[in-house]
Amino acid sequence: MRFLLIEDNPNLAQTVLSQLSAEGHGVDHAFNLAEAEACLAAARYDLILLDITLPDGDGRGFLKRRRAQIDTPIIVMTARSEVSDRVGTLDLGADDYITKPFDFEELKARCRAVLRRQGRSPSPVQQFADVSFNPLEATLTIAGDTRALRNRELRLLEVLLAAPGMIFSKDQLCDRLFSFDEAVSDNAIEVYVARLRRKLDGSRARIETVRGIGYKLVA
Q1: I need a labelling partner for 185 at 20 to 30 A (CA). Which of 38, 58, 88, 103 fits?
Q2: How many CA within 13 A on the CB side of residue 188?
Q3: 26 vs 30, 43, 44, 205, CA distance in Å?
Q4: 163-178 b/e with 16+ CB inside 10 Å = b?
Q5: Are residues 54 and 136 in the same domain?
Q6: Could you give the dihedral angle defined by the CA atoms of residues 112, 115, 117 and 123, in that order, rounded to the nearest 10 degrees?
Q7: Is the pTM of this model over 0.85?
């Protein structure tokens, strides 16, 4: 999935980026609200992580404005711990709230919980044809044979499973799997599609190439 992190503390931002990227998510980082607006104009995100106190303004204004425009889940990250601040932020449209300093396992758990509530995160086990997919364990099982998935393979399967039969272009898949600052080769998607095809070998599910357009998952 693709996240937008809006945070002006470089050390915290780098750690959050590392933690989420290690799970295979594409994460773009905006240092301020202006950069955040530019990112949102250029890409679609599954989740926004928003700091409140930013160099060019208050994140609550951004939250209120964006909530009226998009339904993307937003988790607020702030050092303000008063109940009135939490209530006010939630009333403005935040989907969740985490107080700094926080444990990164808690942040990742809150991300998963918000995405589940929004219907953007897959259920613990998904079935497609004769394949059982467990995203929490990063595995797929075919006729009792369990196969481990690497991060990008897992994210690619999540995207394809969200809409079986739908054709995804390479650009669309890159947008979901990689962030702006990642160096992506021209054949990156082909590489991950080939790897996932090998993991699906022996099942009734297959990734079909639609020449000149993209890929789709079929059974």
Answers
A1: 38
A2: 17
A3: 13, 11, 11, 26
A4: eeeeebebebbebbbb
A5: no
A6: -70
A7: no
Q: What is the pLDDT of residues 39-97, one digit of tens each?
A: 988 888 889 999 998 999 898 999 988 888 888 999 999 887 677 777 888 888 899 99
How would you list the strands of the sheet with 96-99, edge to edge?
Answer: 26-30, 2-6, 47-51, 74-78, 96-99
Pairing of strands 2-6, 26-30: parallel
- Same structural domain, 31 and 105: yes
Nearest to 71 by CA among 115, 132, 103: 115
User: Residue 65 sits in a domain of what CATH number?
Assistant: 3.40.50.2300
What gap in Å lies between CA 63 and CA 91, rounded to an integer? 10
Verify that 203 and 139 share a domain, yes or no. yes
Q: How far apart are CA 98 and CA 108, in angstroms?
A: 11
Pair (104, 137) in one structural domain: no
Confidence class for position 175, pLDDT limits 50, 70, 90: confident
State percent of the chain over pLDDT 70: 97
As a whole number, the mean pLDDT across the chain is: 88
Asked whether the predicted pLDDT for residue 122 surpasses 60, the reply is no
Give the whole-angstrom CA distance, residue 100 versus residue 218.
44
Q: Are residues 209 and 113 in the same domain?
A: no
Digit-coded pLDDT (tens) for 26-54: 889 999 999 999 998 888 888 999 999 89
Q: What is the CATH number of the domain that holds 169?
A: 1.10.10.10
Can you give the residue range of the structural domain that contains 43?
A: 2-117
